[in-house]
Amino acid sequence: MNDYFATVARGLETLAAQELAQLGASHVEPGFCGVSFTGDRKLLYRVNIWARMPFRILVKLYEFPCQDADELFQGMQKIDWSDYLTPDLTLAVKATGKSERLNHSHFTALQAKTAIVKQQQAQFNDRSDVDVKSPDVQVSIHIEQGTCTVSLDSSGESLHRRGYRPAVGAAPLKESLAAALIQLSGWQPEQMFYDPLCGSGTLPLEACLQALNIAPGLYREKFAFETWLDADIPLLEQLIREAEVSQKDRLVAPIWGSDGDQAVIQQAQANAIQAEVANHVYFSVAELEDIAPPVDSGVVFCNPPYGERLGQDLDLGAFYQRLGYVLKSRFKGWTAFILSGNKELSQSIGLKSAQRFGVYNGTIPCQLLKYELY
């Protein structure tokens, strides 16, 4: 059994812990911006393929006291790097966290990298080249409260970048946050899902992936662990085949998205094609004032602009009032979820929320507001 750490967006730790437990992780403990857990190699591969909320899955190697550059260098050299890295494999080191005397992440990463390659030169009279973009082995260093934690990044490119979304709007949600919001809402595939402000389609597409039981990792070109010395490619291929077989052929209830901007609807349709779900999700051009629910009940889900990146030029107060009016007058029998990063604007909706969930959209504190529409 190995020790792992899944990095997640702030505020999603408990939700991500539940997801990891469902995937078979043991000793699951949510922390700050991450979740620690244990498991075998099969679980590591499975989590990378299936988990919808984490950014990356780290494999913990070693912890040691670390107050300054000398302790960092000595601690890194205590690890036998030949177990993980040979000179023909490329290397990158990323550092996070800090101490009083190690407060610059670039210097910390450089010191750790130097310790690794000096050990290689002593052992092999050769060393790994550095490749910061696509290394064979990505080492992660985290310094906190006088302790350095050394890990290997098993994911590579952040898991939130599914690979199906080359086209994005002006202020897109991360796919991992969209998946978390849907999970938080309690939406079930038996309910219609409709996003009337869908932009490039992230919320409907993530709902579709969940409803069709499509593993988000299937869209990726590769995982970082594929170039490790102990990579088990037959095991990975087996897990991928099992994930492909478990996909469902059709939706139980419709998933729709609409937006008043034709250009972003074209982006949403392109993303649906890339995700190979264009036959399942319906996108259309429609102004907010013109939308109407096609069925008597379901879940309406949206992320309206709140003035941080998109919508500064709009009269957002009036827009939120119109949104509230449309929901109240046309979506009776539905449940609405609205992500808002602006408390004053959310009050303009004119509806009383039944529940509020605190989340972060990047660095912006937000609330997911639930409305029962009668």
Automatic annotation (TrEMBL):
The keyword ATP-binding does not apply. SUPFAM superfamilies: S-adenosyl-L-methionine-dependent methyltransferases. InterPro entries: DNA_methylase_N6_adenine_CS, RlmKL-like_Mtase, RlmKL-like_Mtase_CS, RlmL_1st, SAM-dependent_MTases_sf, THUMP_dom. Residues 43-154 form the THUMP domain. The keyword Transferase applies. Keywords: Methyltransferase, RNA-binding, Transferase. This is THUMP domain-containing protein. It comes from Pseudocalidococcus azoricus BACA0444.
